[in-house]
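FAQ: What does the model actually see?

It sees only this:
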Amino acid sequence: MTQHGGDTSRLRRINLVTTLRTVRDGGPTSLTELSRRAGLSRPTVESLVEELLVTGWLKELPPETGQMGRPARLVAFHAAGSHVLGVDIGSYSVRATVAALDGTVVTACTRPVAADCGRAERLAGTRAVVEEALKQAGLAAGEVAAVCVGTTGVVTAEGVVRLCVGLPDWVGVDLAAELGEAFRCPVLVENDCNLAALAESWNGLAQGVTDLVFVLSGVRTGAGMLLDGRMHRGRRGAAGEIGALPLVGWHRAPSHLAGCPGLPPGTLPQEVAEHVFGRARDGDPAARWAVEQYAHDLAEGIAALVLTVDPELVVVGGGLSRSGDVLLEPLRRHLDPLCLEPPELAISTLGERAVALGAVRHALNHFNATLYDIDTPLPRPTP
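And it is asked to produce this:
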């Protein structure tokens, strides 16, 4: 990225980005080592490091002890200099996660919401959990560098929910505008399944996998995809919405669990799967049959995606991931005969954190693009 001629201000911005990225990617380093890795002269690196220390993007570490001669000056990326916020708006709960710029989670909060509540109540619950997460992190809304919100449904590039069957009165809600009023940074909005896939490739079982199908299964089922390592949204943001096709079984899969004989009266919809899978784990015949039928219908939709995009890995996550020990075997058995070459199949270990973590990763990606943009001035850390 270095440049050796032309506009000196642009050249300095390029060299600043090169220096910052080198330290951030490589960890704490001496100025001599930084000069070597960045391909810049020592005097240039010294000047750039001073600017990055003053602006707060780098921090100076105590010199190493026990060394002969003058101790080397050490610098590191100031990951806590800014923070990002990831939000997951679900049917029964809203989650907010605050993370530093190295992805370290600072705090995570969850607030229950009623599945049948309207738009105003769900938005109020979202604002409340965001406020609580920021309070626990010791941050004001204006100190957040980037925000991403995950929601069920098809979302436009502008952050408006265009189609949604999972949440009442949710079609048409402008989440970017509704939540953007409190922040000085952009508010990104993305489909929850896409974000879960992103989280799995970042901190889950799909690290290093470039072609991934993530099936987010719970009260409803959807899928997110990474193709060639990139989130695949499709032309209108509706990629992966296999559940809209009646010919595959995703629309009827939950009914097998909900209709399982022996459910205690008053069992809440979000508790049905855990109850049925628990009984199946204990060998209950009715519950095992319900799980078998559920796996059959889930496999139909997964097979349609596998035959279309030929992924390296399929990960099943969401609320049902807690019951992976019961689900994986029948799902594998029903899926393999439907695929020309069955992919690797796994149950996510991220559980119900996946969407919020994916939102954090998406926010970080957006912020990094801004931070490393050589055509704009270097921003300052938000606190």
